[in-house]
Amino acid sequence: MWATCGASSLLLMGAGAEPWPVVLLAGVVCTAITFLLWRMKKTEESRLFWILQWCWAEFMMGMILKQTGECWNLNGNGKAWIPVVLMILAYSAAGRKQPGNVGALLWRITALLYVPILAVGLWGIHPQRIGFHVEVKRINPYLMTGFLLPWAGGILHRTEEGKSSRYLLMLMALATTASVITAGTLSLQAAENYKNGFYEAVRGMRIAGVTERFESLLSVGMTIGWFCALSLLAAIVWQAREKLKLHDKAKVAEIVIPLVIMWGINEKNVEFSWIGSVAIWGIVPMLSRLKQKRKKNGKIA
Fold it and tell me: What's the pTM value of the predicted model, to 2 decimals?
């Protein structure tokens, strides 16, 4: 549930900018990759594997930190403090031996926050705005990364395989519903003018013609999700450092690098980052395990 909670914020961020058929298709593809990897036997990964995981987790933390303030309606320097505080908390939590217990609690809290938002959002949509017309200009990087984040949790060998399918289906339903609500409330064309289209759609929700402050619930839920995603990635960095036998002084760099990336990147820099997520969290582990399987079969023969 730790990874599921973290993935929820990434998916809500990405789903608001994509048509629901694209969101659903992305979920199916990433779920198929995840299922395939879970079914393959775990092996001792190579040094190159852990170098790639360390580098990509650091980049993804910087990319996520860039967006953590976009679910709060703050002016001035208010948003600037959110990434710094979340990074420190996430890195502190990453060293815990049983973060999954906390993640399970946090996922239940976020689920309770999201249920009324989704229910009211679906009730107030304009069906004629949704449609089936699909025009894909680009693939949202947060969407693909969110669907693959549960596998990133699997790298730590802390994912419960028996329950994984249920969580993945929940994430697909959450992301698809968010896309439908955004299109049915704002329209996808209007959502493209905002960094967080779903958040703007929630700000416009009404009950009996009166605008309600559901965005406050969403802000809390997404912030919890950002914390879970960052702490999960920080845990991958911790594990990669141990596997690579890096010096303890690297801990300082592991905190500074994501913050530097956050301040240095812009939207254009991350447009194709989903390719990195698919490659490093999907293709690389798959090739690594197939290579180990071939070596084992060769020794048996």
Answer: 0.86
